[in-house]
Amino acid sequence: MSKSWPEDIIADMQRIGLTGSIAVGKSAVCDVFRELGCHVIDADQIARDVVKYGTAGLRMIVHRFGDSILREDGELDRAKLGAIVFADESKRLLLNSIVHPLVFEVQNKWLETREREDPEGIAIVDAALMIESGGYKRFNRLIVVWCQPAIQLRRLMSRDNLAEADAQKRIASQMPQDEKKQYADFLIDTSNDKEDMRRQVIGIYEKLKFTGD
User: pLDDT, tens digit, for every residue of 29-43?
Assistant: First the structure.
């Protein structure tokens, strides 16, 4: 799955993992880190890219799930596949076993490139399932983004136009927020306004940039 770091790269760059459950505000947090000069990559976007039309990832998914999960244009029908895997734990784990190694490979190549370009910089990988997949072990520090459960539920229902029962099911399919917090070196609570979140991000950035802690 993950690859060892090339011997010719001096690992001075800080490699930071950022995670959190669905609809807790990870993207907004990452936007602030980008403004501050950090390199940030979104694992969800990578996961979409590695299963695009014509990729080996999509072929593997079709082999295991059948071509009924394809749209008429040959692209993956993400809504249909999502309905399948969120309703069946074994199928969700099967999908993750296909996608996660492909995502890790892209992440590692990106990190190696950032290391060469900016060896004293901060590179952040944003991934919702970083703890569940074990990917967090590859990073110097782990940031966990969280919010109050009622706020998370409301955000998810609004964002994805879901009924409450469907939103609850998606939340329940992931590791509980309180459990994720136990893995964190830093916590960011997005329950309040954006300025409060921004202050927390800046505080963590200053610790990473100026003290290395």
Answer: 999 999 999 999 999
